[in-house]
Design brief:
single chain, 9 helices, about 85% helix, mainly alpha, about 250 residues
C-alpha cells in the first residue's frame, strides 16, 4: 500500500514537472511553427470524422430519448434548449475529449514510447537537444488549439443531429427548434464547454507524453504504456469535468 502511494505521488510529481517544462517550452521562442502545423494536421484535422460522428449521433439520441421518455410533459417542444445546453456544457467537451483524446493520446504514447525504447530520446539528449521542446511542445500546442475547435464543431453537429430528430421524428417545426436553441443557449454555456476543452487538452497531452517518455521493456512496454494512457485519460477527463463544473458554477 505504501509503495503504491509512493509510486502514485512520484508519477504525479513527474506529470506536474513535465507539464511545467512543456508550458515553458511552448511559450519561449524559438517556435517550430512547421512542427506545430504537422501535429495539428495529425492530431486535429484527422480527428474530424470521429468527433463529428460521435457528437452528431449523440445529439440525435439525446433528442429522441428526452422526448420519448417524458411525453406527458410536452418536452419535445423544448428539445432545442435541452440538446443545446447539454451538448455545449457537458456532452460536447467530454465526449470529444474521451473519443479524440483516446485516439490521439494512444498515438502520442506509441510514438514517444517507440523512440524511448529504441534510445532515440537518449540520442537527442546527447546532441544537446531538448526532447520536451522538440517533441512534447508541438504536440501540446496542437492539442490545445485543435481540441477546443473540435469541441465547437461537435457542438454544432450535435445540435444539428437534434434538429434532424425534432423535425423528421417528433414533428417539431424547424423554426420552433432553432428559436428554442437560441433562446436557451447563453454565452456562458458556450464559454464553459470551450474552457473545459482547454483543460482536457492540456491534461490528456501531458499524460500521453509522460507515458511515452517513461515507457520501458521493448514492444510490450510500449503496448502497456499505450493502454495505460487511454485508461488514465478517460479517468482524468471525467474527474476533471466534475471539478471544473463545480468551479464554473461557483464563479458564475
Amino acid at each position: 500500500m505504501l509503495r503504491d502511494l509512493r509510486a502514485a505521488l512520484r508519477d504525479f510529481g513527474e506529470l506536474a514537472l513535465l507539464g511545467w517544462r512543456a508550458l515553458i517550452a511552448l511559450l519561449v521562442p524559438p517556435w517550430e511553427v512547421g512542427a506545430w502545423l504537422r501535429q495539428m494536421d495529425l492530431l486535429g484535422v484527422r480527428s474530424l470524422a470521429v468527433a463529428g460522428v460521435t457528437t452528431l449521433f449523440t445529439g440525435m439520441v439525446l433528442a429522441l430519448q428526452t422526448a420519448l421518455s417524458l411525453p406527458e410533459l410536452g418536452i419535445k417542444y423544448y428539445i432545442g434548449s435541452v440538446v443545446g445546453k447539454s451538448l455545449t456544457r457537458e456532452l460536447g467537451p467530454v465526449l470529444v475529449a474521451l473519443i479524440v483524446g483516446g485516439r490521439i493520446g494512444s498515438g502520442m504514447t506509441a510514438e514517444l514510447g517507440t523512440m524511448k525504447v529504441t534510445e532515440q530520446i537518449d540520442a537527442m539528449r546527447s546532441m544537446a537537444a531538448d526532447p520536451v521542446k522538440k517533441l512534447v511542445a508541438p504536440k501540446l500546442a496542437a492539442t490545445v488549439l485543435m481540441l477546443p475547435a473540435l469541441t465547437v464543431l461537435g457542438d454544432a453537429l450535435g445540435i444539428l443531429g437534434g434538429l434532424l430528430i425534432a423535425v423528421f421524428q417528433l414533428d417539431v417545426s424547424l423554426g420552433l427548434y432553432w428559436n428554442d436553441v437560441l433562446r436557451g443557449l447563453t454565452l456562458e454555456d458556450l464559454l464553459s464547454g470551450v474552457a473545459k476543452s482547454f483543460f482536457f487538452a492540456f491534461c490528456l497531452c501531458i499524460i500521453a507524453c509522460h507515458k511515452g517518455l517513461t515507457a520501458r521493456g521493448g514492444a510490450d512496454g510500449v503496448g502497456r504504456a499505450t493502454t495505460d494512457t487511454v485508461v488514465w485519460i478517460s479517468i482524468m477527463v471525467i474527474v476533471l469535468d466534475f471539478f471544473l463544473t463545480k468551479l464554473f458554477f461557483i464563479l458564475g
